[in-house]
Amino acid sequence: MIESMNLVILIASVLVVVAVFTSLISFRVGAPLLLVFLFVGLGAGEDGIGGINFDNAPLAYFIGSIALAMILFDSGFETQLRTLKIAAAPSLVLATVGVMLTAFVVGGVTWLVLDVPWLVALLFGAIVSSTDAAAVFFLLRVGGINLRDRTRSTLEVESGSNDPMAVFLTISLVELIMQGGGDNLALELLERFVLQIGLGAVLGLLGGMAIVQMINRVKLEPALVPIVTLACALSLFGATSIVGGSGFLAVYVAGLYAGNSQMRMSVGVRRFQHVTTWLAQIVMFVTMGLLATPSQFGDVIIPGVILALVLVFVARPVAVWLCLMFFNFSRNDTAFISWVGLRGAVSILLAIVPMVEGVEYGQLLFNTAFIVVITSLLLQGWTIRLMARWLGIMIPPRHGPVDRIDLELPGNANQEIVVYRVHSESAVATGQRIPRWARPSLILRDGKSLRPHSAGRIEGGDQVYIITPPRHVELLDQLFAGPAEGANDVDLFGDFSFPPDTRIADLGRLYGFVVGDADEEATVAEILERNLSGDIEPGDRVAYGMVELIVRRIDDTHEIVEVGMAVEQKPVKPKRHLPMFHSRTELLAIWKEWQRRRLREKMRKKRGDDVLDTDDAKEPGDDMSIVDDAANDGENDDIGPVRAESGKSDKS
Questions:
Q1: Which of 256, 306, 392, 478 would disulfide-bridge 575, Cβ 3.0–4.6 Å?
Q2: Which letter does DSSP use for residue 389 in this model?
């Protein structure tokens, strides 16, 4: 017995070490890291070189559930309140309605491809309906893809919050299948939804409040605080699941509340969770790989690939478009969000549930889900950067601090240690004096630590440590950080720059362009914010008469700090314009234009009938006058309004 335990410990630890070192492959060749972990498990399994015979589905589900709960708690803890405010509404719709739409579309195709009962087909749609938070977070945060905050926030919040919905659908459908179905499927699912999601949200909020109060009131050893926090989160997960709620939603909400509260030792908790979350991801993916039997994939590889392609190119895009059209995302942003719908370990974990509960087609669903996950990670995970570049939605990176370390101080003294690697083109490196409030506490140069008074003039490449309130980071950027990529490019950011409170009327008088009466008191920042609808990033341009206003710089809260202006509008390479994913505004414009065309057609037809009716009453010599009158009527009554309406439509 003891030898068997030692063997298990040895094998498990070796697999973790192998998975960690194979991550170097991901960084070198750009492969999705979690796919590498999955292949480590496959290679160690019974059909791989390891030859480990692991077929304990209940144990795999137990391990995966704990790992997913830890991942979701950390996802909530890392989600900032500002991110949630930006993307709360679209993410919530995607995490609920989007998951259900995806499940129904994939379920319908599964019923045709796998030839299974329709309830089992719908179950498979629910299994692969959610995106993988670990895969999305890794590819966006570590992959260096710079996106608009609204797009990035929507993807991150959706991927962290849609797992509970997929879990609810999967477990509910498994129970209905085992009970032989129901008389009213929609009503039963609605009742279960209200119970599980409602209890999960309420208990998660109460649990998050309890965790914060306990950590702040009980004076524990600092090293024990992260352990107690995680243990309380897992306790909340188990308790919520026992009373019939969604434990996964509960831990996510608890993490969301705790991460955005003034909790003692939050810095230590965050660092500890980074470690445990990575370990949970490795264990989860390797375990799922061990459970799979690749020799059984031959029978389902073609249906699995077909379902994966339907999921990637039909189900996910349709669900995302229908959910986001009311939030006026651009077509390219909607297309990118639909492409970043990676499936991962959560889908494989949910595919274990039918096997554990003894559903007749459980093994078939598990093998097919595995093929779908591998296809998704290979197809989408390897092309996310290429897709972002092809759609033209990547924004210039903003150079700022290389690290920001929260300080645990008593009371409300909110301070950070901000670390900069001084850019060679920064203001300080080129000779500007450092204000007293921005002087570094420590300088690292050539591997040596220097005191500010003995370091002399700060040089490019120095690493400086500054203790400062978070609100001063934007000011420090102007001193130590390099400009954003292309910040000095006139074609990109304009010929001149102005403060955001400059009045557009003053610029109009100075540069000789007409300003509308309604904009006499408007500032350049107000003009930009009005036209960009709050979704502002550096490089955004708004045409105003003969000039263009350009966003040069923004702060951490996305307030405009500097505005550029191009006097001569230069031709800018247009973004790729997709013929799909129209927003609500665009659809309304198309509808109004169709109505106008229909009305004009009726008017032309009516005038043609009137001409024919009066033709019989005229003398033969009056034919030309009738035609001339009709032409004049058409020119005055039809062509003028058409041009005006067309111009209005183009503007809209």
A1: 392
A2: H
**What's the confidence (pLDDT) of residue 616?**
53
| Sheet bearing 496-498, strands edge to edge | 496-498, 560-566, 547-554, 541-544
Task: Count Cα neighbours of 195 within 13 Å in the Cβ-side half-sphere.
Answer: 13
Query: Amino acid identity of 73?
Result: F
Q: CA 6 to CA 280: how far, in whole Å?
A: 21
The alpha carbon of 36 is separated from its chain's Cα centroid by a whole number of angstroms, namely: 22
CB within 8 Å of 302: residues ≥ 6 apart: none
Q: What pLDDT digit, counting tens, does each position of 439-488 carry?
A: 888 888 888 888 877 777 888 888 888 888 877 776 777 777 766 544 44
pLDDT value for 299:
87
Res 410: pLDDT: 63
Cα torsion 159, 160, 161, 166: sign: positive
Residue 306: which pLDDT band, with cuts at 50, 70 and 90?
very high
- The closest of 506, 575, 514 to 547, measured between CA atoms, is 514
Contact 273, 73 (CB under 8 A): yes
- The model's confidence at residue 643, banded by pLDDT at 50, 70 and 90, is very low
235 contact partners, CB below 8 Å, separation of at least 6? none
HSE-up of 494 (CA within 13 Å, CB side)? 22
User: So what's the pLDDT on residue 27?
Assistant: 56
- Token pair, residue 307, equals 């379902």
Nearest to 284 by CA among 235, 346, 234, 343: 346
Task: Spell out the residues 6+ positions from residue 32 whose beta carbon is closer than 8 angstroms to its own.
Answer: 26, 135, 138, 139, 342, 377, 378, 381, 382
Cβ-proximal residues to 410 (8 Å cutoff; 6+ apart), any chain: none
Tell me how far apart the alpha carbons of residues 112 and 105 are, in angstroms, rounded to a whole number.
11
